[in-house]
Design a protein that fits this description.
The chain has helices spanning 101-113, 135-143, 157-168, 183-190, 194-205, 242-247, 273-279, 285-299, and strands at 5-14, 17-22, 31-36, 48-55, 58-64, 70-74, 79-84, 88-93, 117-122, 148-150, 172-176, 215-219, 225-228. The protein is α/β, with parallel strands linked by helices. The protein has three domains: 5-64, Nucleic acid-binding proteins (OB fold (Dihydrolipoamide Acetyltransferase, E2P)); 70-228, 3-Layer(aba) Sandwich (Rossmann fold), CATH 3.40.50.300; 242-299, Ribonucleotide Reductase Protein R1, domain 1 (Orthogonal Bundle). It has a five-stranded mixed β-barrel with strand order 1-2-3-5-4. Strands 6-7 form a two-stranded antiparallel sheet. The structure holds guanosine-5'-triphosphate, magnesium ion and zinc ion. Guanosine-5'-triphosphate binds at residues 92, 123-124, 126-127, 152-154, 179-185, 211-212, 230-231.
């Protein structure tokens, strides 16, 4: 006879292997590895699952409970789910190495589609020139209403923790961004035992130890979770419709429906409310150009 079903939260996902935090075992909660019967990629960090003990140290995830949201990226061939049930997505950027604004825009659009609030964390404020070079762009995102935090995790760790802790408390926040921006540095600062925990799970799941190779959630003292994720170089939006693309541009939202043509793509049509706003400076030109490129790419599919 098989063991009864129990529930758990997925802390980490690596291929078809998962690391679970078991329900009902107090705050310290039991943790264990499990596999899934489903396809690889069906279960992600942040998922709530029901699982079963198979005996001899084996556990299997039987099903994923309904999700509040699921952040994902995609190309023409496949969709990749990143994490589920998020309160916030924190995009980690820096001037050193220079971040890609195109990738930032893509992440913001994907998050908007899932109703996930975003904030920006600009790191390496201690590196000369790193933030100065991107300051004009940070201002644009602040004026759009995205909270922007400028931090020096290495040079001013105590101040960094003090600034970010209230922002992260009690919520589940996914850190994401390009490689080398400083995501894991932040996690190690905010979750002192993160390094050890990552090592333990790396051994259990037999992954590499030094680079971030899988998505991993950590409990924050006082409540909330912080999820570290591997850096990415592409962030495809093949799963989004044209309408979802334009709604993902926050500053477009109040103007959508006000163009002369109902099916306006906001690229070259006369009487376009959005291009008028670009011309008079109330919409940032660079953001509009990035949108045009996304729209062109979507048309080629
Ligand atoms: N000077 C300075 N260096 C930093 C800061 N934050 C991170 N770094 C350095 O930047 C490098 C990359 O940091 P990581 O935290 O590993 O970057 P990551 O975003 O986790 O990268 P991936 O795991 O590859 O996605 C490391 O050498 C860090 O020491 C900072 O605020 N100031
Ligand atoms: Mg990392
Ligand atoms: Zn238009």
């Amino acid at each position: 006879m098989s063991a009864p079903l129990a529930q758990a939260t997925v802390l980490a996902a690596y291929g078809r292997q998962f690391w679970l935090r078991l329900d009902g075992e107090g705050d310290a909660g039991g943790e264990r590895s499990a596999v899934t019967r489903g396809r690889r990629g069906d279960v992600v960090a942040g998922d709530r699952v029901s699982w079963r003990d198979l005996g001899s140290g084996q556990a299997v995830i039987e099903s994923v409970l309904p999700r509040r949201n699921l952040l994902r990226r995609s190309d023409d061939r496949r969709e990749k789910a990143l994490a589920a049930n998020l309160d916030r997505a924190a995009i980690v950027i820096s001037g050193e190495p220079p971040f890609s604004e195109e990738l930032l825009v893509r992440v913001l659009i994907a998050a908007e589609r899932e109703g996930i609030d975003c904030l920006l964390i600009a790191t390496k404020a201690d590196v000369p020139g790193a933030l100065e070079s991107i300051e004009p762009r940070l201002h644009v995102y602040e004026s759009l209403g995205y909270p922007v935090f400028r931090i020096a995790a290495k040079a001013a760790p105590a101040e960094t923790v003090e600034r970010l802790r209230p922002e992260l408390a009690g919520r589940t926040t996914l850190l994401l961004g390009q490689s080398g921006m400083g995501k894991s540095t932040l996690v190690n600062l905010l979750v002192p035992e993160a390094d050890l925990a990552t090592q333990a799970i790396s051994e259990a799941l037999q992954t590499g130890k030094h680079t971030t190779t899988f998505t991993r959630a950590f409990d924050l003292t006082g409540g909330g979770r912080l999820i570290d994720s591997p850096g990415f170089q592409v962030f495809g939006l093949a799963h989004l419709s044209a309408s979802e693309l334009e709604h993902g541009m926050r500053e477009f939202q109040p103007l959508i429906g006000h163009c002369k043509y109902y099916n306006c793509t906001h690229r070259h049509e006369p009487g376009c409310a959005i291009r008028t706003a670009v011309a008079d400076g109330s919409i940032d030109t660079r953001r509009h150009t990035l949108y045009e490129q996304l729209r062109d790419a979507a048309r080629e599919r």
